[in-house]
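Reopening this one. Same input as before:
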Amino acid sequence: MRFFKKQRKNSVTHSSFEQGDQSKENNKDLLKTSLEGNIQYVKQVLGNSRDIVIREIQIGKKGVKAGIFYTDGLVDTNSIQNFILESLMLDIHTDQGQIISSQHNVLQILKDDILTVGDIQDVTEFSYLLTSLLSGDVVLLVDGYAQGFTIGMRGGKDRGVTESTTETVVRGPKESFTENLRTNTALIRRKIKTPNLWLETKTIGRMTRTNVAIMYIDGVVNDKVVEEVHKRLDRIDIDGILESGYIEALIEDEKFSPFPTIYYSERPDAIAAELLEGKVAILVDGTPIVLVAPALFVSFIQSAEDYYQRADISTLIRLLRFFSIFIALLGPSLYIAITTFHQEMLPTGLLINLAAQREGVPFPAFIEALMMETAFEILREAGLRMPKAIGQAVSIVGTLVIGTAAVEAGFVSAAMVIVIAITATSSFVLPTLALSMSIRMLRFPMMALAASFGLFGILVGFIALVLHLCSLRSFGVPYMSPFGPFIPEDIKDTLIRVPWWRMFSRPRLISQKNIKREQNSASKPPRNKM
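Same output, byte for byte:
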């Protein structure tokens, strides 16, 4: 009994020591009443960095000392001069006409009567002070108070709103997102002015402290999707987030699938359209790419311009995109299978021409296609990485020269060059790069199946691909909907696009509430009679 009592006493003493250490750590993070002590602490933690500006001033005639902290290059210095320094360094009086002194509540007077700025937050901890300081806010501390203010005056140089370079359209808005988070949220609010467009923010990254915004339309979005997005973002524990691709890789459903399960775009009109369908947008500070969840397979085939054209034109273009997907995926595979195993499927004249072309080629069709595909991928990547002035010329000229030289040297046949050229061109028809990259990767295993088993191998590979697509989910929503599961009401905006007066409902598996998009649009509007 004495042993257990002694052990219990020791455990109580140990727990009291832990509480004491924790309280000491909490007290260490609190601001000091001495301005000089706070300045020294900030300088020590930041290593006396030269871009951290600390300005000591005197407030009023009584000489109350104050300190202004900001990071050079992240703030608007003109606003600091006009709205902070001029206000604080003049003769400041209280409402009773008495000159401000150390006996008054200086912080309350500064906050209520002196500072002519809107975004003012109280700060009592060094951790919050350092985060705000390094994020571009101005910090104001007063001597004698263990409390201060963070003032929102973020500025500095950033890229303006320009035209999108990856998602170009002939008809529609030309603006695209920038690397500034507040600029991006403002671009979306310019499109959707409803008060139901809600915005929530998080800070992710132990070192980068990256601001991440979540936007959705309350009353349209599925609340379970919003909750799931929050859960997945809260589980992220990483030292830095430099681009939205970090977030995408950490929250997507299928980690090893070649198909993207999170949609992304740099066009505000495309993101606004996704929000109106009941989806959630994730904006990351420092990148113009905005993520959208949940994502469907058809979302990567749709373009923002589809909704600005007439319905018949948009339908024709979408059917062309689906046809281009099959060409980009199965073009070389079909050529390899037919020329190797199923020559009887070709007309006699075409078969004789192909046999004549391949007479001097030392490699089988699969090796031909593999060499040409590899060469084209190298040229495409080289064209992207080279300077713009010569990148496009090198990619085009290199392709022509290498293709012609390969045919004349007898390495490949002319028909193979034509097939690879049509396949590569078809992959550029897709409006999103994510799906195009997936098709480019899957093209190689399909070629291997065609070289091994002919059309039977292509059929087996295609069935396995469809089964894989049907098994995918994006935040609980089937990836292939409305095809699987089949929802007839939602087919109106997939392979085809019906006129706007028939698109009166949102996708049912995404929104699940407030399904109706239009009022009194169940039938075609009557024609005007003469």
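So the earlier flakiness isn't reproducible anymore. For the record, Residues 311-478 form one domain.
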